[in-house]
Amino acid sequence: MAFGVYVHIPYCVKKCPYCDFNSYGVGDIFPERDYTESVLNELEMYAELLDDTHLTSIFFGGGTPSLFEARNIERIITKIKNTASPDDNLEVSLEINPKTADLEKLKGLKGAGVNRVSFGVQSFSERKLKFLGRINSPDDSRSILEDAVKAGFDNINIDLMYGTTDETPEEWKSDLEEALTFKSTHISAYCLMIEDGTQFGNLFKRGKLTLPAEDELSEFITFTTETLEQSGYEQYEISNYSKPGYECRHNMLYWRGDDYLGVGAGAHSHLKSEGRGWGTRQGNIKNPGLYMKSVRVGEKPLDFCEELEKHEALEDTVLMGLRLNKGLEFNSLRDSYSVTPDEYKIGYLVKGGLIEINGDSVRLTEKGNLLSNAVIERFLDSLSPV
Ligand code: SF4
C-alpha cells in the first residue's frame, strides 16, 4: 500500500494575515540546525514503522521549507529513504516561497533529491499580493519559475489564490493566463478562506473585510476549469489541476485515505497499520520549541493520539472522496462501511446542483464545493445501513 512522509517546517519570514497553518513569522532567525536534528531524531523513533512501508512520497510543507539549506533537506530525505523502502518513482515535493530561493538554491534542492517543487505564487498582481500580505513580488515569482526549469525540474506546481476583496474576473483571468506561460505541470487554484484566529478572521468578524459573493466565486471557478482544461490540464480534485500523469502523489494519499506519517511541529499522521479497526490519527505538539524539547528528552512529541471510531473514518472518507474528480464510489461505502445514501435524501442535493452522480460515484459540484461543509453534513445524514 502507498505510504507517505510529511515533514513540517514551521518557520516563515512573515505570517500572512489569512494563514491558519502551524507557521510562525520569524524573519531570518530560526533554529535550523536544532530543528533538523529534532526531525532526524523523531524519524528514528518511527524506524520500525517506516521499515515496514512502501514509501511513495515525501512532502516538505510548512511554513516555508525553502528557508532551510539544501544540505539539511538532503539529510532528512536520506534518513527517510534509508529507513523505509522507497518506490522507484518516489515523489519528493518541497514548498517554496518565491522570495526565499534562487537558482543556486534550486540546484541544491535538486541535488538533495527533491524532484517536485511547489511555488506559493498566489498571484501575479501587485494589488492582490499586497492585500494577501505576501513577501513575494510578481517578479520574484516570474524569475523563480524560470529558474526552476533551468535547475532541471520537470514537475512544477504553481499555487494561485482567488476570491480576494474587490477582485475582478479580469484580475483572476490575468493570473491564470500568466501562470500558463510557465512550464508548470500542476496548478492549484484555491479560494481565499476566512479562518478563525487569523488577522483576516478578526477583520471579517468586525465587518471590516468584504469578499466576493458566492455567484461571483462560482463564475471564477467555472472560468478556471475551462481555461486550464483547454490548456491540457485535468482537474483531478476540486482545487487541483495537472497535466496527465502529474497528479500530486502525496496529496492523493490524503484524498484516498491512505497512510502517512507526519514529522515536525504540529504534523499530523494517519496510520491504519498502527491501530486496530478504523486506524489511528495523531498530531504533534504545535509549538516548535516544545516540540524540539520533547524530542530532546527522547519522547515522541505527540499532542494527541486517538483511535478512530467507524463514524470518524466514514466522515474522513466522505470528506476526501467527494472532492475528487473521480468522486466517492458507492461500492466502497457499501464494502467498507456497510452504508449507502438514501436516494430521496441525496435527490435534494442533486436537484440543488450541489453534488453530481456519475454511474457508481458521486462528487461535489463547483457550487457544492463553495458550501462544502453543509453539503457533506447533509450527505452524511443521508447514509443508512445496507
Ligand atoms: S508563507 Fe504560507 S505558511 Fe507562511 S504564513 Fe504565509 S501562507 Fe502561511
Write up what this structure looks like.
With 386 residues, this protein is of the alpha/beta class. Helices cover 41% and strands 25% of the residues. It contains 16 helices and 19 strands. The protein has helices spanning 32-45, 47-51, 70-83, 103-112, 126-131, 138-150, 169-179, 199-205, 214-230, 249-256, 288-296, 310-321, 330-337, 343-351, 366-370, 372-381, and strands at 2-9, 11-12, 24-25, 54-62, 85-96, 116-122, 156-162, 186-191, 234-237, 240-242, 259-263, 268-271, 280-284, 302-307, 328-329, 339-341, 355-358, 361-364, 383-385. The strands form five sheets. A nine-stranded mixed beta sheet has the order 9-10-8-7-6-5-4-1-11, with helices on both faces. Strands 12-13-14 form a three-stranded antiparallel beta sheet, with no helix packed on it. Helix 1 packs across helix 11 (288-296) and helix 7 packs parallel to helix 9 (214-230).
Topology:
Layout: E1 2-9, E2 11-12, E3 24-25, H1 32-45, H2 47-51, E4 54-62, H3 70-83, E5 85-96, H4 103-112, E6 116-122, H5 126-131, H6 138-150, E7 156-162, H7 169-179, E8 186-191, H8 199-205, H9 214-230, E9 234-237, E10 240-242, H10 249-256, E11 259-263, E12 268-271, E13 280-284, H11 288-296, E14 302-307, H12 310-321, E15 328-329, H13 330-337, E16 339-341, H14 343-351, E17 355-358, E18 361-364, H15 366-370, H16 372-381, E19 383-385
Parallel strand pairs: 1-4, 1-11, 2-3, 4-5, 5-6, 6-7, 7-8
Antiparallel strand pairs: 8-10, 9-10, 12-13, 13-14, 15-18, 16-19, 17-18
The structure holds iron/sulfur cluster (SF4).
Iron/sulfur cluster binds at residues 12, 15-16, 19, 21, 23, 62-64, 97, 120.
